[in-house]
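Quick entry, no commentary yet.
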Amino acid sequence: MTATLSGEFGTVLREWRNRRRLSQIDLAIDAGTTQRHLSFLEQGRSAPGRDIVIRLADSLRLTLRQRNALLTAAGFAPAHPESPPNAPLLDIAQAYGMKNGLPITDPASGYDPLHPYTNRDPRLYQTIVYPGDTFMTVPVTPTRFAITGYGLKKYSIYDKGAAPAGKSDLKAGQSETNYIILRYADVLLMYAEAKNEASGPDATVLSALNSVRSRAGLPGVAAGLTQDSVRTIIRHERRVEFAGEGVYYNDIRRWKTAEQVLGQAIYKYDGSKLEARKFDPARDYWWPIPQTELDLNPNLTQNDRY
């Protein structure tokens, strides 16, 4: 479903902005758009994309019901209850190796497909809620998180115990955890990657890499591997260490591997196919420049193939 020009959406948006006592410029900055664009949305002169509706709802700290009302007013289907758009996929769950440091595809790893979440990389348990887990004192069923069967635990205030008083419903704006811009593990892995690319896997590369693995309770990477092998390990380490932190998307763009990662089918927890995704490397490494920005600056030209 696509949005159309909607005075209803503009009215609802403006009402919520006024309730939150936010100026247009403050809301625009927080939602990652321009004041001009926001003004056009409120006047019904511009049709919003679903992503901007979600960002505006997050900035306004709307509940699920309020968010759905905003989506509906914009002409989009409502979000499924407790099924956020960042639901983890089977691929990231399988990317976490075993506690002994081996990937689940290694016959020596001890991985048991009948008990797929036993003895895994401890970071899996800190990042993803999976069927068979316990979340907020309740056993997790495959329908608990309806999109993929998985939920994202990282950044939330919830774990196996009871939710804090008055915060048992899942919605944005309740976590005391600040959004991570940069943390030390990223510094270490950036160094390891840069040094490995520049001169190969010396002792300082392995020291930085193994500092991150050691903190997670995993054995270190031994010396003697090739530059290509260490590159693969570093890239994998970045993926699982920073899952859910908004890092991997830009990693695969700069590595120029996005068409390999994003141009394929995606799956739910049980291996059932959700959809086939496409990534056009001739176009999709860059986003389109918003028409509002092109209107503001005639010297801008649209990116290729948009």
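second:
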Amino acid sequence: MPENLTNVAVFFFLSVGAVALFTFIAVAHWATQRREEREVQYRCELLKKLAEQPGEGARQVLDMLRAEEAKKEREHRQGLILGGLITFVVGVGVMLLLYGVEKSEPVWLVGLIPLLIGAVLFLYGVFSPRSEQPGAGTAPPSR
């Protein structure tokens, strides 16, 4: 096979692959957005019904919604901590690799970039203020 034809074949293969990849990403994002919109719509409908029919059942549902929000916040915080630790370790690895490759120049300092980013993510995940749940642990005013 001539080299020119091989280059053209590789170009078309990579072009089709890139188009397929970005099409998949777009469709996956669209599907995720649709699901999130439905969840928000169902939540709003539930809150409307709760507002129309207060009582013990409504209080239980509100407690469940608060627990879901607390779980989402906890998972987000854990994701920040894990991402920070991973980025920190990548920074250490880059520093060690670059120090082993080039000992005469301080290129290993480039590893400080991901190391410090990881440290900031970790510290933010650990020390950021937790949001207070409005009305959590208090009884609603009686009428």
